[in-house]
């Protein structure tokens, strides 16, 4: 084998992580198709991208807790935090345009200002934007002064920012609805974001051998939390099982549930066929990365469905 071949393949595979973007958009497109003829707001694609970026930031902030040798990826956190801020700003502008009844390009500054000042969605959006800017700004400073940086602050800002919209949405009107929504959002973000972070940061067979089993231990309660809270939230929202077929919201929820069950099956299979082999140093880093990419792509479709679900009437 020529020198550098394995490293080159791993680098190419990491670039393949960009496929999570079209995978998330596939999920959005599927959600739109299932929702018809019920109305769906136009910001679903941007919501999916923003949620995915936020989850990845959360995962990168958690990752050093899995292994003492893993150093915070400050450059990645700064870049992804900046992209998250941009996505949230575009999302905020898209929501304002929806309320005003114009296209994003036709939104006037005065109307945007009124939305931010007088509409609850705009005020929540400002808080979300402040959180993402704080993540990006702190990560940039920490990259320049690494000896003083701690991912704990990033973790707190990212977690709070990720739950701001869910805890103030339709579930907030139900008993313990905000708690269920917050747990669901954080568990899903940790499950997805930590695996993306692993794919971005872990380089060697030895690192996968140590870190993958630890991620698997974290993922199990996260999956359980996503499943339980998702079922509770869904049953409260749809009211009866017939709505799973009769309404756009119900059809998207059913598709999302099927995808999550598929992910549960894949996770079960990975715990039998991937985690033990990798932990025994019997699997190359490249093979582990391929498996992580497969699961991340499927998760991205679910994120797209979830984003469409959150803006479906």
CATH architecture classification name: Up-down Bundle
Question: For the report, how would you describe the main beta sheet?
Answer: none
- Strand element count: 0
Form type: globular
The CATH superfamily name is Formate dehydrogenase/DMSO reductase domain
User: Structural class per helix/strand content?
Assistant: mainly alpha
Mean pLDDT: 88
Percent range for β-strand residues: under 5%
Radius of gyration: 20 Å
Structure, described:
- By secondary structure, this protein is mainly α.
- Helices cover 78% and strands 0% of the residues.
- It is built from 13 helices and no strands.
- It is a multi-pass membrane protein.
Explain briefly what this protein structure is.
The chain has helices at 5-15, 20-35, 44-62, 74-100, 109-118, 120-144, 151-167, 177-201, 205-238, 243-246, 248-273, 275-279, 285-310. With 313 residues, it is mostly helical.
Topology:
Blueprint: H1 5-15, H2 20-35, H3 44-62, H4 74-100, H5 109-118, H6 120-144, H7 151-167, H8 177-201, H9 205-238, H10 243-246, H11 248-273, H12 275-279, H13 285-310
Helix pairs in contact: 1-13, 2-3, 2-11, 2-13, 3-4, 3-7, 3-8, 3-13, 4-5, 4-6, 5-6, 6-7, 7-8, 8-9, 8-13, 9-11, 11-13
What key phrases describe this protein's structure?
mainly alpha; 313 residues; 0% strand; Formate dehydrogenase/DMSO reductase fold
């Amino acid at each position: 084998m020529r020198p550098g071949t394995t490293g080159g393949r791993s680098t190419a595979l990491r670039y393949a992580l960009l496929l999570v973007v079209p995978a998330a958009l596939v999920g959005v497109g599927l959600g739109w198709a299932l929702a018809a003829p019920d109305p769906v707001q136009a910001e679903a694609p941007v919501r999916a991208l923003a949620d995915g970026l936020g989850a990845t930031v959360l995962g990168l902030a958690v990752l050093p807790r899995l292994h003492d040798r893993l150093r915070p990826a400050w450059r990645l956190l700064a870049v992804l935090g900046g992209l998250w801020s941009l996505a949230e700003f575009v999302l905020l502008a898209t929501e304002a345009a929806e309320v005003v009844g114009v296209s994003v390009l036709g939104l006037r500054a005065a109307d945007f200002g009124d939305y931010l000042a007088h509409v609850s969605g705009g005020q929540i959006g400002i808080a979300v934007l402040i959180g993402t800017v704080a993540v990006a700004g702190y990560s940039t400073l920490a990259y320049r002064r690494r000896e003083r940086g701690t991912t704990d602050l990033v973790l707190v800002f990212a977690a709070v920012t990720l739950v701001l919209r869910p805890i103030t949405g339709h579930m907030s009107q139900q008993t313990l609805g905000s708690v269920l929504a917050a747990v669901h959002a954080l568990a899903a973000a940790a499950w997805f974001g930590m695996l993306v972070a692993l794919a971005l940061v872990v380089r060697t067979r030895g690192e996968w051998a140590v870190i993958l089993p630890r991620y698997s231990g974290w993922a199990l309660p996260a999956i359980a939390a996503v499943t339980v809270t998702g079922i509770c939230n869904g049953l409260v929202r749809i009211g009866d099982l017939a709505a799973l077929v009769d309404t756009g919201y119900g059809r998207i929820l059913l598709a999302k549930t099927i995808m999550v069950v598929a992910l549960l099956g894949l996770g079960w299979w990975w715990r039998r066929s991937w985690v033990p082999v990798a932990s025994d140093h019997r699997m190359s880093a490249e093979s582990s990365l391929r498996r992580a990419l497969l699961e991340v792509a499927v998760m991205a479709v679910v994120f797209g469905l979830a984003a469409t679900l959150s803006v479906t009437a």
